Protein 1
Amino acid sequence: MEGDKRPDKLRVAVLGCGSVGSQVVRLLQEQAGDLAARVGVPVELAGVAVRRLDAPREVEVPADLLTTDAVGLVSRDDVDLVVEVIGGIEPARSLILTALENGASVVSANKALLAEDGPTLFEAAEKAGRDLYYEAAVAGAIPILRPLRESLAGDRVTRVLGIVNGTTNFILDKMDTSGAGFTEALEEAQELGYAEADPTADVEGFDAAAKAAILASLAFHSRVTASDVYREGISEVTAADVQSARDMGAVVKLLAICELREGEGGEEAVAVRVHPAMIPRSHPLASVREAYNAVFVESEAAGQLMFYGPGAGGSPTASAVLGDLVTVARNRLAGTRGAGESAYADRAVLPMGETRTRYHVAIDVDDRAGVLAAVATAFAEHGVSIQTVRQEGRDDDAQLVVVSHESTDAQLSATVAHLRDMEIVREVTSIMRVEGEHE
Ligand SMILES: NC(=O)c1ccc[n+]([C@@H]2O[C@H](COP(=O)([O-])OP(=O)(O)OC[C@H]3O[C@@H](n4cnc5c(N)ncnc54)[C@H](O)[C@@H]3O)[C@@H](O)[C@H]2O)c1
Ligand SMILES: N[C@@H](CCO)C(=O)O
Ligand code: NA
């Protein structure tokens, strides 16, 4: 960046003017005075790239600032900062790379892209000597990436547990409070505008998995991409699972779980997964209701921290984008850049089968002598120790609810397969991992 002159203003291009982009433009317009004071020079809108010039928008943009030529906009010499809020992989990736090559600093909210191909973007930013910030990509308005990257940079993070998808939290909360089934709760989420018409990315855990990859990379200073994340969504969660959780004083949440665990040869490895799990109602994450998000961080020196707030929505997400924009603008004026990627620890990602967790298993069995012993033996044969067993009798059958101690996921799934093969087992009615308690 040597040779850069201190500019008397900074010019920002916004790519995409949808839910988030329109609110970014609004805040840039409404808060121009404060932003100038905080940055040190005015931050002016240079242009807004849109797909259709005549589309309805939630913000008024002067006609001469609108363009359908996003490539042309990011290639302009007078653009210092680029906000990418188009989403998806292409053309977002090419646009960000072009912006960096042309010397712009970039702010993005694009978790899908960061989780799939972050390293390509980080390397381009490093090469260009520019910033790439993306606080809005994980848990919307909640400051979580900067705390991991900066505030906790002197500590050793060992675990991150997050409710990072608002749509699924809303659905599970509805199922818990009203006894609704998954389909009914999803319909309500769609009516209220939380869930998309095609809710697959949220409901099947893809959105949370992208966020988990980003969190794990920052927390553990290693490269973790979306394909490294074990993923299960919530579409198979039944009203019976939710009731079973209630019966044991727990609640079902879709969790993004990032942990440091012992891997092969005693080396520390990263375990990262997204799946529904039962957590005790006493856990701070259990009180995260409706479409809110929260991220619970455990670190060696600080202990336990929780970050809570709105994880989605145009205006909250734009708050995080603007926060990043002020930072990259200040860096730009100071002729410096913030911390880039930190992947020095280069830890391997542990396969799901080797990840240690606990299972809650509800089984319908014949109600006769020896059944409990046979079920206990099946657990023991796979090296799984039982923590609690509860039995509820019915007419001629009984339901056993077993909660295991921590074992590898492979041992636990082998136990469930074994149970399903047993003659005395009529049906395994609910299987769910249990999190949020240390053994
Ligand atoms: N909405 C949220 O709550 C939220 C929260 C966190 C992060 N994000 C992320 O923010 C980004 C934007 O999300 P959104 O909800 O605003 O989506 P959106 O669909 O409302 O907006 C995206 C806009 O980009 C436009 N677009 C598409 N291709 C374009 C192109 N080539 N050139 C110019 N414009 C183009 C679309 O027409 C659309 O208006 C995504 O990466 C998303 O994951 C959104
Ligand atoms: N669809 C996401 C938006 C925020 O990334 C959610 O429901 O949380
Ligand atoms: Na955030």
Protein 2
Amino acid sequence: MSLKALVWRVPSWTVPLIAAVAVILMPVVGIESNVQRQLVLICILALIVSGLNLSLGYAGELALGQAAVYAGGAYVSGYLGAHGHTELLVQLAAAVGVALLIGVVTGIPGLRLGHWSLAMVSFFLVLLVPDLLEMFKDETGGSFGLSGIFPATLFGHTLDPREYCIAVTVVTALWLLVLRNLVRSRHGTAFRVLRESPVLASSMGISVFRMKFAAYAIGAIPAGLAGCLFANLDHFLAPSSFGFKLAISILAASILGGSASVYGAVVGAMLLQLGPLESTDFQEYALVVYGLLLLVGGVVLAKGIAGLLELAGKRVERRWFPRPRSAPYAGDLLDGVDGVALDVAGVSKTFGGLHALSDVSLTAAAGSITALIGPNGSGKTTLLNMICGYYRLDEGAIRLGDGELSRVPYKAARAGVARTFQTPTIPPGISVGEAVRSGRYTTQHASFLSAVLRLPSYRRARARDLEESRRVLALVGLADLENEEAVSLPLGTRRLLEVSRALIAKPRLLLLDEVASGLDEDEVDRLAELIRRIRDAGGTVVLVEHNFRLVLSLADKIYVLARGEILAAGSPAEIEAHPQVLTEYLGVKAPEAEQLLQAGGVTEGGQHE
Ligand SMILES: Nc1ncnc2c1ncn2[C@@H]1O[C@H](COP(=O)(O)OP(=O)(O)OP(=O)(O)O)[C@@H](O)[C@H]1O
């Protein structure tokens, strides 16, 4: 076997495992006590930053409350330690409990209110820490700090500083393993989808609130662990350790290290802990420097240092170790394309005083292509959004098959509605295969725990994801691009990728929103062929399109919208010969329309000859 093939047989966790063992061995073989202390502090900071990375870097929610959760974990452990409950495992469990409690209590209102609320709620939480500690000064020591914390024990054995350092590195390594398994699973891709676009996430059946809440609550866990480990380091806790400066330094470490990366948390923590900022000369300027680091990091190092390392790694991979391609898919490419009828009955929608849709009715039969055309602003996208559940109905009803479609977007998606977007929406940092597989996220359940522990239920879902992505990529003709970075593909390929992401969910209704715009002639032909195959296999396709020639060649039935009303409906031949369509939609003056109809000429894009 060649070296290149051998490289891909080595499990991807080998390198981090070797690094973790090396770090854990450092205190085992013996290092100076000040180096031990630095190592513990790096681990503690890396833990806190890793939590922020999950909520900010992966799920896209700025939550600044890690410092407060850290304080919660520290004071609970410190209180236990000062009252003789020194068992480290018990303290860690208590700290995780408190972290989750704080995560839940602040996460629910913060996320429910939306927009910047979580950032604000979590920020105020940090400002509240000194007051809360003062309020409970009998337990926390208030502004004097909490002293008298007994050294931690493990199964009754009191840990000396060297053993404690080993314990801290083991806890950190285990947590980073948990996080790695989570973000490298289908849940990690779903978090990235959410970060890229909540609208996209809900169109794939993902509950935006639940997913963001999960990221925030899980992200609180390592901050709680870090608090516990910190409380047992100096056996003393002072409120000044948990203030605004810490919150900013966590953010700076996350941005600099790379927020969309597990290892970025370690890199960021090392930079901040070992850099000159921790020296006493720099302490008074630390806040200013952290602020500058945030600005510079945000602008120059968009993906942080871990992002740069990843880029270099990918270059080496592409140049020297190209990933072997999967075997061609041998099964039925159109498996599961079973559409059901869509029935839109008397739907109206106003935005303020604007009638975007007035009493619109249409049906789309299974095994047919139904096109929706109309001038800009006529209400096409609004109608698609109504079907997907993004807007409430002012009047009317929308049914899919036998049931009324939910007005909650992720529920409508789970009922079988899949769509593409006018501008392809694809998260950065994932491959074509991962982007396509994200479309199956809610069609097969595998819990967070099963992903973290790589349980059989997770492995089954993963195997099925891989199989299905090979199927749809072969169907749309992108099988060779499975391992390419999705976001950097040309527009035409990204559009096909969106179609495959919609198809992998085995939709009962496929909505294609201006899927041909920006494509060259060859790409349009390939796309048309694909849409026909989906229709012929029994799919229900609704096509919103400006390319009139494509619509005429593809559609079984065409609806023309103008100013929010159905202007005409019929077969392509009927629509092509409809004088009002020519005048309203194609902008032809009435006398010319008569001549044009007699000459029989309409060209692509709705221009008349
Ligand atoms: N969320 C919204 N709030 C207010 N007005 C809206 C909203 N969405 C759409 N509209 C308005 O409703 C009308 C229909 O818009 P819509 O985007 O559905 O048209 P369209 O036919 O899809 O146009 P295009 O072909 O340019 O995409 C427009 O006047 C638009 O400004």
